């Protein structure tokens, strides 16, 4: 129906509130000293890593940052949802805009809950099932799901891969130039 369910609203409010409670715990010196001491006494490196990560997290998790991050994420996911709605319309699936956005958002959440990187498989299945539930054929639903993932996920992955390859090439050049700087000068032949 295009409305945010009271259950989903409650979950989102609870998660946001818990994140600020956790930040408060980190900022409270004596409580955090107990927690970080406990983590540091763990026999593996994960305890120390978790403590260090929490301290870094505390630096960025303030109300102004959260509002900014949330706004940017909302815009990014909103654009992806609009791309999905546009692809559905282009394929002839006449969905109301809010319904298409709802389908995309619920599929994204299901993909995230699956634990698979990028929600691979789970998100596509959720998109297809929901589109078929709205009257889409198997072929149109699968096409919409694959096309959406190609332009919203895999295009970004290709950009990231290109960036990674550029960084690797620059690092190789930098390492090669550093090695060349450390080579001893050639001794001229005295013949």
CA gyration radius, whole angstroms: 25 Å
What ranges have pLDDT less than 50 throughout 5 or more consecutive residues?
none
- The number of helical runs is 7
Shape: flat
Beta-strand fraction estimate? under 5%
Ends: how far apart? 92 Å
> Could you give the order of the helices and strands?
HHHHHHH
Mean pLDDT score, rounded? 82
The strand count comes to 0
Helicity level: over 70%
Class derived from helix and strand content: mainly alpha
- Tell me about the largest β-sheet: none
Provide structural commentary:
The chain is mainly α and 191 residues long. It has 7 helices and no strands. It has helices at residues 6-27, 29-40, 45-60, 63-90, 97-114, 122-133, 138-182. The longest helix is centred in the last third of the chain and has 45 residues, at 138-182.
What secondary-structure arrangement, pairings included, does this model have?
Blueprint: H1 6-27, H2 29-40, H3 45-60, H4 63-90, H5 97-114, H6 122-133, H7 138-182
Keyphrases for this structure?
mainly alpha
Summarize the structure.
The chain is mainly α. It has helices at 6-27, 29-40, 45-60, 63-90, 97-114, 122-133, 138-182. The model has no long low-confidence stretch (mean pLDDT 82).
